[in-house]
Predict the structure.
Amino acid sequence: MTQLQHLLATLALAAAPLASAAPVTWQLQGHFTGVATDKPEFIAAISPLLGTQSLSLTLTIDPGVTGSTALNGDAMYRAITASTAQFAGFDTVANPCRTDASASEFICTVRSHDGIGRAPGVFDPDFLSIFPATHNSAAFDAAAGLNRAFSLQFMMFASDLDGLLLPDDSLASALDAITPGRIQGFLGVFARGADGLFSDRASFEFRLDSISTGATAHAVPEPSGLLLTALALAAALPSRRRNTRS
């Protein structure tokens, strides 16, 4: 094997694990609107805590995950690997995101539907939903004064809003659609009811004011950059031979 062949073979082995995209961190800033629905007891206790105060969410999304089909035919991606939340003066602790087959389709997932032909002759909207990890805050539980332990989820939805049009149901198209004005957000506050399930709940609307993204600090170089480096080194090999022979 020549030096060039050996170099290119080494490059191929090194580049293989770098082909997957690095996780991306999304910073979402918003505020509560004062609109709430569902359980009146929760609304009466929690609405004064939230008011129209600010909300800050951080989501880490893995754009390289493979999708599956959700129950209603949407594409579902277990793409949210981590999240943090700060709202109305409260910090939260996120529960781990599960990726096994038994994990809930409403936690740590992004779901997408491109609105193409779900049923002939029936209006079929483009649809996007984002379900971060559930969160908990002991300070929030205490401030509500209901003697209940709450699970919190900052859900986001878009359905043909502001000209939303998904070219397909891929995760990349879904992430491109996450912009302020297109997303309706709701803080879901859940508590276990008499049935032992999280049947007691209320939703508090929030609006997103700004969204920014950035690759993680550990993003790896693209294989194309390594290839250019290899070609430059390969081009230098004949020159080195000529110099050593002269």
Notes: Confidence is low (pLDDT under 50) at residues 4-19, 216-246. The CA atoms of residues 171 and 219 lie 19 Å apart.
